[in-house]
Specification:
It is found in: Cell membrane. With 308 residues, this protein is mostly helical. It has 14 helices and 2 strands. The chain has one domain (40-307): ABC transporter involved in vitamin B12 uptake, BtuC, CATH 1.10.3470. The longest helix has 27 residues, at 201-227.
Length: 308
């Protein structure tokens, strides 16, 4: 029992603490309508963080997710796609995410370059291409299907929340039920040992970056629908937030750990904490400070628990 409790991600205990605190200070925060609003806000970040989980568990990192989201937003909002079926435009946006993930994966595996440097460079290139593509003036010709994905509801449940659940199930299957997940954790824990054991370490890392790019583009589609217009800076804060959600979910930068369930719990905790801070009137600098402290404390406690 002790081992099981210590294995639970920090986000699990954090969510319990936040819910108890909210129940005594802001009871309306836990009402069903408000929770559905939080779910709609958390869905895009949750999908992006799930993609980040693959690369973090594989001892890598993807700092280009923010630029990917922004570029996807420019695609789905640009007037040049007027007249095309909305599903085709969404497919183009997802393919762009795959291409970005492929470029990141090839640079990291073939050139053996640092993932931090590679993905930062990729983000800069994507941002520049986005400015050229949009001419510095993002469009507002967004299809109703995209808006429905970001804002729509089925009953009281947001469509984006259902999409996030579907991506969470997919990520859980890939990480826990398929050989790819075992390869990711083995390569992330000890790349040399995994290579000697016959695991295709480079191919596994390449696939991790491909999945990260695809999930980032998918989250970008939902976030674009939620916002409803084009924006050159959309998703800029998702880089730090996605990494924070993964760390809160129990992953470590050394690789070999992490889970889809933990990442979704980490996303929920992060969104609830930030919204609670908003309710109490905390401004953006204060939110960043609290967010950093929560990540640091959670990582330290989880590491100590694993060592114990």
């Amino acid at each position: 029992m002790k081992r099981f409790l210590l294995s639970l991600p920090p986000a699990f205990w954090g969510l319990i603490a936040v819910c108890v605190f909210a129940a005594f200070t802001q009871p309306q925060f836990l009402s069903l309508p408000f929770l559905m609003i939080l779910l709609r806000q958390a869905a895009p970040l949750g999908i992006v963080a799930l993609g980040q989980t693959f690369v973090v568990a594989n001892r890598s990192l993807d700092l280009s997710v923010g630029a990917t989201i922004a570029f996807v937003n420019l695609i789905v909002a640009h007037a040049m796609w007027n007249g095309y079926p909305p599903a085709f435009v969404i497919a183009v946006a997802l393919c762009v995410g795959l291409v970005i993930g492929l470029v990141n994966g090839l640079l990291v595996t073939v050139l053996r370059a640092s993932a931090v440097v590679v993905t930062l460079g990729t983000a800069a290139v994507i941002t520049g291409i986005g400015f050229l593509y949009s001419g510095g003036a993002p469009g507002s010709s967004m299809a109703e299907l995209v808006k429905w994905l970001g804002r729509g509801r089925i009953g009281v449940v947001p469509v984006s929340g259902l999409a996030c659940l579907a991506f969470g199930i997919l990520a859980w299957i890939l990480l826990r039920r398929l050989t790819l997940g075992r390869y990711i954790f083995a390569a992330g824990d000890n790349p040399s040992a995994a290579s000697y054991s016959g695991i295709p370490v480079n191919t596994t890392l390449l696939l991790s970056h491909l999945l990260s790019g695809l999930f980032a583009a998918s989250g970008g589609v939902l976030l674009s629908g939620l916002v409803g217009v084009g924006s050159l800076n959309l998703g800029a804060d998702y880089v730090l937030s996605s990494i924070a959600a993964v760390i809160l979910g129990g992953a470590v930068f050394g690789g070999g750990a992490g889970s889809a369930v933990g990442t979704m719990l980490g996303t929920a905790l992060l969104v609830m904490v930030l919204n609670l801070l908003t309710v109490f009137g905390v401004d953006q600098p204060g939110k960043l400070i609290v967010q950093g402290l929560v990540i640091a404390v959670a990582a330290i406690i989880y590491q100590q628990g694993r060592r114990g």
